[in-house]
């Protein structure tokens, strides 16, 4: 059945038109999950959901890196900053609420928190200001981890350390395949650029069609076409819909660097819980660069204070966890667009341009297509 908004825009380029016509011609019901904040941005920005037929639903999984960073890691970063360290991180991360406050709140209270664009900026600050104890709060998926590994493989100054909250995508997708009502997956093209297509094969072996997609609207439409083709034939495999960038074996140099510096661990995902083998922590040889161990004595008192403050805090109920697992839409959250907006986010999904609530607020009809 066609969606009421599904008429084709006459200005749409021919390739997109053809891809969409093929999708609209299919009657196959398919609930597709993507696990990438950039895919959500493309889907929301170009209004792709509004042109898909009603039998095809695309939902968002846990693909926004700041959304899945657990409160506890944010609390440690804040405790470090309040204890005298200079905590540097990406702009989005500064606005993500911990259990009591955000890094930006801590900065307003006098803590030394600064924004950087990369780990190299953080190292450069540590080199220029040897009197500071610089901690880089490094978050993200396999896409950003190689840059952290490359930096640590070079000699870094003694007053520099890493607070790592890094995640691996395939174990989380594997968990969602078990627990969510999803028929097929769009795998993230930039993660696959590093790890290749092989790590997604266990999903296909369990019967889920998978496609690795790029980030243009036409890439996402092509991805949906490839998933439909698999579903219609009753097969499941990993199709590479982004061959101009992704090689089946990934980026061997980046993988080698990651392996040299980090090892796999269990990891806490905000709202989802601990997922086995989904984290990347520093290897023993790099323990002197591990901020959470190096400065444990320094920040433990501040961390206790943050936890005590969090217990007294009247928390607005945030349903990010349900949104990140495809069980709810942002407009179902009572705070959406009221207490929680991109200017004043109550939860992590409203902070970043990759967050589902942010994109829903900014682009969707249900969100009011408001421009923040
Ligand atoms: S609208 Fe805000 S409070 Fe509600 S789920 Fe999204 S981020 Fe959380």
Strand proportion, as a percent range, falls in 15-25%
By helix and strand content, what is the structural category? alpha/beta
The CATH fourth-level homologous superfamily of the largest domain: HypD, alpha/beta domain 2
Whole-number count of domains: 3
Whole-Å distance between the termini?
34 Å
Oligomer: single chain
* Continuous helix count: 18
Proportion of helical residues: 40-55%
Give the ordered list of helices and strands.
Answer: HEHHEHHEHHEHEHEHEHHEHEHEEHHHH
| Gross geometry | globular
* Level-2 CATH architecture of the largest domain: 3-Layer(aba) Sandwich
Based on CA atoms alone, the radius of gyration comes out at: 21 Å
CATH class of the largest domain: Alpha Beta
Secondary structure tally: strands: 11
Biggest beta sheet attributes? 6 strands, mixed
What does this structure look like?
By secondary structure, the protein is α/β, with parallel strands linked by helices. It folds into 3 domains: 14-64 and 170-240, 3-Layer(aba) Sandwich (Rossmann fold), CATH 3.40.50.11750; 67-168 and 251-312, Rossmann fold, CATH 3.40.50.11740; 316-362, no CATH class. The chain contains 18 helices and 11 strands. It has helices spanning 14-25, 37-45, 48-51, 65-68, 71-82, 91-94, 103-108, 119-128, 145-153, 169-179, 189-195, 201-205, 217-233, 252-261, 291-294, 296-312, 320-324, 356-363; strands at 30-34, 56-60, 86-89, 113-115, 134-140, 160-167, 184-188, 210-213, 238-240, 262-269, 273-282. The protein has a 6-stranded mixed β-sheet, with helices on both faces. The protein is globular. It binds iron/sulfur cluster. Iron/sulfur cluster (SF4) binds at residues 316, 318-320, 323, 330, 333, 335-336, 340, 345-347, 349-350, 357. GO terms for molecular function: 4 iron, 4 sulfur cluster binding; carbon monoxide binding; iron ion binding. It holds the Pfam family HypD. Keywords: Iron, Metal-binding.
């Amino acid at each position: 059945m066609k969606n009421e908004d599904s008429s084709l825009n006459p200005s749409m380029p021919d390739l997109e038109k053809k891809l969409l016509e093929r999708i609209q011609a299919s009657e196959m019901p398919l609930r597709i999950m993507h696990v990438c904040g950039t895919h959500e941005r493309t889907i929301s920005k170009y209004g792709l959901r509004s042109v898909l037929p009603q039998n095809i639903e695309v939902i968002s999984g846990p693909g926004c890196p700041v959304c899945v960073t657990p409160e506890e890691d944010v609390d440690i970063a804040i405790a470090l900053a309040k204890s005298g360290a200079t905590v540097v991180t990406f702009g989005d991360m500064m606005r993500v609420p911990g259990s009591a406050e955000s890094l930006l709140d801590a900065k307003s209270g006098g803590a030394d928190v600064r924004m950087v664009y990369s780990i190299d900026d953080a190292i450069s600050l540590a080199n220029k200001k040897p009197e500071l104890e610089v901690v880089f709060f490094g978050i993200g998926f396999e896409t950003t981890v190689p840059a952290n590994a490359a930096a640590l493989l070079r000699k870094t100054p003694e007053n520099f350390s890493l607070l790592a909250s890094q995640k691996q995508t395939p174990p989380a997708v594997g968990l969602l395949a078990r627990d969510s009502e999803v028929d097929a997956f769009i795998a993230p093209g930039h993660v696959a650029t590093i790890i290749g297509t092989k790590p997604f094969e266990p999903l296909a072996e369990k019967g889920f069609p998978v496609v690795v997609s790029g980030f243009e609207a036409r890439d996402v439409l092509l991805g949906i076409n490839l998933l439909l083709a698999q579903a219609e034939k009753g097969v499941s495999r990993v199709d590479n819909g982004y061959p101009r960038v992704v090689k089946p074996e990934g980026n061997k140099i980046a993988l080698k660097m990651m392996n040299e510096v980090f090892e796999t661990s269990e990891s806490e995902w905000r709202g989802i819980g601990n997922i086995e083998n989904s984290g990347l922590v520093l290897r023993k040889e790099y323990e002197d660069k591990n901020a959470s161990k190096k400065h444990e004595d320094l920040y433990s008192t501040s961390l206790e204070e943050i936890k005590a403050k969090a217990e007294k805090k009247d928390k607005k109920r945030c349903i990010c966890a349900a949104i990140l697992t495809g069980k709810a839409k942002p407009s179902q959250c009572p705070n959406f667009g009221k207490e929680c907006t991109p200017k004043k986010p109550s939860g992590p999904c409203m902070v970043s341009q990759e967050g589902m609530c942010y994109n829903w607020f900014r682009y969707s009809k249900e969100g009011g297509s408001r421009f923040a």
